[in-house]
């Protein structure tokens, strides 16, 4: 599959456990793990979305450590994966950059564990055969409702064996990337 694919990790607008719209903190583990997974599955870009300038600065410091600092020599593979990251202030900014890279037909596909709607993995894979996609993941307790009102496609949620469904975002990203881009052995 050669159609470009991006991943976006949204830190705002996000809902918290009470349902309030908030901005969540960037975590080092999410950056490293999602970037490594994205690189493994041939993702072209990984957008880290936060309007908080201090959080953007933190991400850039982490990236500098692995691109120019001690980390660059210590583990070049990590720097290679982290080179996918683009830090932006909004999903609109990420989508504009993605479309400038992948083409004007590129579309976002939202994710959410609490969704009851959405297209299946097979339909999403078929869509990816036609147009570049940006898979949009939320932090906290998920993407804010206003994002689901934009008319964008939504991927049906990952379902485990029981009713509990609160995966860490880095695990959800890995599962979805494997289902969409993985190859059968």
Ordered list of secondary-structure elements with their pairings:
Layout: E1 5-10, E2 14-15, E3 21-22, H1 28-40, E4 45-49, H2 53-67, H3 70-74, H4 76-82, E5 85-88, H5 91-102, E6 107-110, H6 121-128, E7 133-138, H7 145-148, E8 153-154, H8 169-181
Parallel strand pairs: 1-4, 1-7, 4-5, 6-7, 6-8
Antiparallel strand pairs: 2-3
Q: What does this entry show, briefly?
A:
The chain has 185 residues and is α/β, with parallel strands linked by helices. Helix content is 42%, strand content 17%.
Write up this protein.
It is a single chain. The chain has 185 residues and is of the alpha/beta class. The protein has one domain (5-181): SPOUT methyltransferase, trefoil knot domain (Alpha/beta knot, 3-Layer(aba) Sandwich). It is built from eight helices and eight strands, in the order βββαβαααβαβαβαβα. Strands 5-4-1-7-6-8 form a six-stranded parallel sheet, with helices on both faces. Strands 2-3 form a two-stranded antiparallel sheet. Strand 2 (14-15) and strand 3 form a beta hairpin. The longest helix is centred in the N-terminal third of the chain and has 15 residues, at 53-67. Residues 5-182 form the tRNA (guanine-N(1)-)-methyltransferase C-terminal domain. It comes from Syntrophotalea carbinolica (strain DSM 2380 / NBRC 103641 / GraBd1) (Pelobacter carbinolicus). This is tRNA (guanine-N(1)-)-methyltransferase C-terminal domain-containing protein.
């Amino acid at each position: 599959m050669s159609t470009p694919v991006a991943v976006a990790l949204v830190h705002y607008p996000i809902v918290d456990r009470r349902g309030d719209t908030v901005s969540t903190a960037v975590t080092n583990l999410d950056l490293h793990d999602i970037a490594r997974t994205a690189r493994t599955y041939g993702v072209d870009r990984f957008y880290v979305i936060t309007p908080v300038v201090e959080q953007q600065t933190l991400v850039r410091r982490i990236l500098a450590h692995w691109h120019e600092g001690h980390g660059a020599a210590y583990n070049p593979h990590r720097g290679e994966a982290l080179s996918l990251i683009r830090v932006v202030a909004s999903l609109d900014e990420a989508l504009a950059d993605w479309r400038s890279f992948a083409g004007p037909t590129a579309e976002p596909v939202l994710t959410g564990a609490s969704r009851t709607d959405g297209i299946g993995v097979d339909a999403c894979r078929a869509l990816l055969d036609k147009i570049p996609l940006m898979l949009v993941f939320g932090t906290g307790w998920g993407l804010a409702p206003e994002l689901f009102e934009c008319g964008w496609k939504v991927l049906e949620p990952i379902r485990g064996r029981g009713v509990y469904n609160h995966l860490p975002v880095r695990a959800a990203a890995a599962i979805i990337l494997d289902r969409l881009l993985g190859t059968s052995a």
